[in-house]
Design goal:
Blueprint: H1 2-21, E1 37-41, E2 51-55, H2 64-84, E3 96-102, E4 109-111, E5 116-119, H3 133-148, H4 155-177, E6 187-188, E7 203-204, E8 213-214, E9 218-219, H5 235-238, H6 244-257, H7 265-274, H8 284-299, H9 304-315
Parallel strand pairs: 1-3, 3-5
Antiparallel strand pairs: 1-2, 4-5, 6-7, 8-9
Bound molecules: zinc ion (ZN).
Length: 330
């Protein structure tokens, strides 16, 4: 297991080195606790190469997309370092690259395995994708998930991959705002929707399905319970749809435990992400069981945390069961 874990790190680094040789960024590795950000302006081309417009330590540029990407990557780095002692995406100090002004009126942001790429939005549906800190955290968390668990981007494993990004993205925003879980809005992309859209965000973790209802955008399709699980071939098997179910489970666990989400529920989710029993094709049920194992390992059998995690999954229609030995695998 340790060999496999190392292997994925080396692969990530190799990819990075190749990219660097191709001229998309620096190769310097940096010491733990220090971040190295590079923001590239794609100048509305659909390319992830372009001019470096802000490097670590450079002053603000007055281009909001550049500065929001720079700040957002920094806060996300700080969150993972301060809370989990994770040194960047790969825990090996991988420099953080953000591409802004990708494409023309491009209505999305994505993680391509090495960089975070942000469109400007068309201002009809969406504003620029750097405007929401949780969306930046979401993209970076895809890198963390890829490095730790390699959850395939399809069906339930893909919905878990998406949910992980919402869970950590939302916690990054809560960390920045110093919010306890009862004070958080649990919305993803609240700043992102244009004024023309009837909605409050891209997704709601506390109440999936309620984020928007709009003539152009349609209605938020997320279920919040297994009874409403959507079987579809669209959206990679509903990865952005069924993620509502594990999203709500995390929200329930965090708010039932109380305090800052990252102190206990977030720690359980993070340790589950690093648990070697979380395989690339893991579905909701197995993931839920692993969160219970990790709650027990971290906080003890019969603890408030274990109970809150079990109750959270129950409430979204997933009954957890513990059959395997309780040792930690990493
Ligand atoms: Zn995503």
């Amino acid at each position: 297991m340790a060999t496999l874990a190392n292997d994925s790190t080396f692969r990530a680094l190799r990819n990075f080195t190749n990219a660097s040789l191709a001229g998309t960024g620096p190769v310097t590795m940096i010491s733990p606790g220090k971040k190295q950000r590079t923001i590239i302006d794609a100048k509305n081309m659909q390319s992830t190469e372009g001019k470096i417009v802000r490097f670590e330590g450079d002053p603000a540029t007055n281009d909001p997309a550049v500065d929001e990407a720079y700040d957002g990557l920094g806060i996300t780095y700080d969150f993972f370092w301060n809370i989990f002692e994770r040194h960047s995406i790969d825990d090996e100090g991988m420099p953080l690259q953000g591409i802004v002004h990708f494409g023309k009126e491009y209505n999305n942001a994505f993680w391509d395995g090495q960089k975070m790429t942000f469109g400007d939005g068309d201002d009809d549906l969406f504003k620029r994708f750097t405007i929401s800190l949780d969306v930046i955290g979401h993209e970076l968390a895809h890198g963390v998930t890829e490095d730790e668990a390699g959850l395939v981007y399809f069906n339930q494993a893909g919905a878990l991959n998406e949910s992980m990004s919402d869970v950590f993205g939302s916690m990054v925003k809560q960390f920045k705002l110093n919010q306890t879980s009862d004070k958080a809005d649990w919305l993803i992309g609240a700043e992102l929707l244009s004024e023309k859209i009837n909605g409050k965000a891209l997704r709601s973790m506390s109440d999936p399905g309620s984020a928007y209802d709009d003539p152009v955008l349609g209605k938020d399709p997320q279920p919040k319970h297994m009874n409403d699980f959507v079987n579809t071939f669209e959206d990679n098997g509903g990865v952005h749809i069924n993620s509502g179910i594990p999203n709500r489970a995390f929200y329930l666990a965090a708010t039932n435990i109380g305090g800052f989400a990252w102190e206990r529920a977030g720690k359980i989710w993070y340790e589950t992400l690093k648990d070697a029993r979380l395989r690339a094709n893991t579905g909701f049920k197995r993931f839920a069981n692993l969160t219970v194992y990790n709650a027990i390992r971290l906080f003890g059998q019969g603890s408030v945390e274990e109970q809150a995690v079990q109750n959270a999954w129950n409430e979204v229609g997933i009954t957890t069961s513990i059959k395997e030995p309780l040792q930690y695998a990493h």
